[in-house]
């Protein structure tokens, strides 16, 4: 991850938290819906990792956005 985008990764992670909590589901439940590990959800929410377009599209479907 490039340092110049660190803030955007952080903001994206906060948005994932927002939508997950709006759905009233846990990280584990979201991970199961997305077919990824819970630790990956945690890293995304903390802004430590980015996501592929495939995962981004799947998130949009799950969050209905």
How would you characterize the overall build of this protein?
The chain is an all-alpha fold. 68% of the residues lie in helices and 0% in strands. The protein is built from four helices and no strands. The chain has helices at 6-22, 27-34, 38-45, 53-63. Helix 2 (27-34) packs across helix 3 (38-45). The longest helix has 17 residues, at 6-22. The radius of gyration is 11 Å and the shape is globular. The mean pLDDT is 96.
Briefly summarize what is shown.
With 65 residues, this protein is mostly helical. 68% of the residues lie in helices and 0% in strands. The mean pLDDT is 96.
Q: How many H/I helices?
A: 4
Mean pLDDT: 96
Helix and strand sequence: HHHH
Please indicate the percent range of residues in DSSP E strands (runs of 2 or more): under 5%
Instruction: Specify the overall morphology.
Output: globular
Through-space gap between termini:
25 Å
Give the helix level as a range of percent.
55-70%
- The quaternary organization reads as single chain
Largest sheet: none
What labels describe this entry?
single chain; mainly alpha; 65 residues; 4 helices
Blueprint of the fold:
Blueprint: H1 6-22, H2 27-34, H3 38-45, H4 53-63
């Amino acid at each position: 991850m490039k340092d110049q985008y660190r803030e955007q990764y952080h903001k994206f992670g906060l948005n994932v938290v927002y939508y997950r909590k709006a759905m009233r589901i846990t990280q584990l439940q979201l991970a199961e819906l997305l077919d990824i590990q819970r630790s990956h959800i945690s890293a995304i929410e903390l802004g430590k990792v980015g996501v592929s377009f495939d995962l981004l599209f799947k998130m949009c479907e799950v969050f209905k956005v």
